[in-house]
Design a protein that fits this description.
By secondary structure, the protein is an alpha+beta fold. It has two domains: 159 residues, Nuclear Transport Factor 2, Chain: A; 140 residues, Nuclear Transport Factor 2, Chain: A, CATH 3.10.450.50. 21% of the residues lie in helices and 39% in strands. The protein has seven helices and 17 strands. The strands form four sheets. Strands 10, 11, 12, 13, 14, 15, 16 and 17 form an eight-stranded mixed sheet that branches. Helix 3 packs antiparallel against helix 4 and helix 5 runs antiparallel to helix 6. The protein is globular. The relative contact order is 0.17.
């Protein structure tokens, strides 16, 4: 896919963009929820189509053309903003229109497109950029991901995230994550124009947490909490049960686990001592009757590979298989 830049105004902000996707890397899960006849006439997530949109977005961003993004972003679009809190479409359009950034160069590698279900496409890539915002150099390189939903006769962006790719510690393994299911920066409250489900006790995963307006969001949050508890217990069987066959995951160090086996290994393969976990500040929305997303703050108390576990802000996408919600993509960032 192509790319579109969203450069942070603060020193710790990340550069957001869309990258070109090689069609040969596009995969469709075996158990798609959609009827093939119903989607046959709908547009495919081709590299050419997405790149054409992305070139327009790139040009519009560099011109601080917030108006362009009013038509480009989906009405449900959400991502973490410069302040580490969920931002909706209107907030991002305003930010882009007021931006003062300069980009000298950019390069994109490791592009891949994966179908999360028949009408939801995941785009991932590595971005290396030379840019400044408000006089501050933008962190680079980053691991970026975008999710597009097929709405009517076009693909529309509904979420984007990036995390700085960090060099692995000399003595540590690949498990540099703070927790299993996905996260990102700062202490966000509730997602604007979305359902909110925050626990009564911020230090626990108690089932007595307040519920959202949508029982599907509550169900996804419940699975998320179960996943964190399974990570704490290093329970590979439980993690296999909670994840879809085509699950993938990007951790807070920019590592990308692209298969279910690698995802489960990344959550169980390191030496961790964890006394408790919590998933708080939750919010979410439905993209379709069988696809939804949640955003949250995840915390683990303990150590992994001798390093204190850090809180993360995450985004998790869930697909409904029968009556069960399963994680299909997770993304995390460290809390700023």
């Amino acid at each position: 896919m192509s790319r579109f830049l969203k450069i942070a105004i603060t020193a710790m902000a990340a550069l957001s963009m869309w990258a070109c996707v090689d069609n040969t890397n596009t995969n469709r899960p075996a158990n798609s929820n959609a009827n093939s006849n119903a989607t046959a006439s709908k547009p495919a997530a081709t590299a050419d189509a997405l790149m054409a949109m992305d070139k327009q977005a790139q040009e519009a961003y560099l011109k601080n053309d917030g108006k362009f993004f009013e038509g480009f972003l989906g009405d449900k679009f959400m991502m973490y903003g410069d302040n580490g809190k969920p931002a909706n479409k209107a907030e991002l359009v305003k930010m882009i229109g007021e931006g003062k950034c300069e980009a000298k160069s950019s390069a994109f590698e490791e592009q891949k497109a994966t179908m999360l279900d028949a009408d939801t496409a995941l785009l991932t890539y590595k971005a290396t950029i030379d840019a400044t915002c408000g006089g501050h150099k933008v962190p680079s390189p980053t691991r970026a991901a975008s999710v597009y939903a097929r709405m009517g006769d076009k693909w529309t962006p509904v979420w984007h995230g990036e995390t700085l790719i960090a060099a692995p510690p000399a003595t540590a393994g690949n498990d540099n994550k703070s927790a299993p299911m996905p996260p990102k920066p700062a202490d966000e409250k509730s997602m604007a124009n979305a359902n909110t489900s925050a626990p009564a006790n911020a230090n626990s995963n108690s089932s007595s947490a307040s519920t959202s307006a949508d029982p599907n969001v509550d169900a996804m949050v419940a699975v998320e909490r179960s996943g964190w508890e399974a990570w704490k217990a290093r329970d590979a069987n439980k993690l296999n049960e909670l994840t879809a066959a085509n699950v993938s995951y990007i951790d807070l160090m920019g590592n990308y686990a692209q298969t279910k086996a690698d995802v489960v290994k990344s959550w169980t393969g390191s030496n961790c001592t964890i006394s408790s976990t919590s998933v708080t500040d939750t919010s979410g929305m439905m993209l379709s009757p069988t696809m939804g997303m949640i955003m949250f703050k995840g915390t683990g108390v303990g150590e992994c590979e001798g390093t204190k576990i850090k809180p993360v802000l995450g985004t998790s996408f869930y697909v409904k298989e029968g009556s069960t919600w399963k994680l299909v993509f997770g993304f995390e960032n460290p809390v700023a």
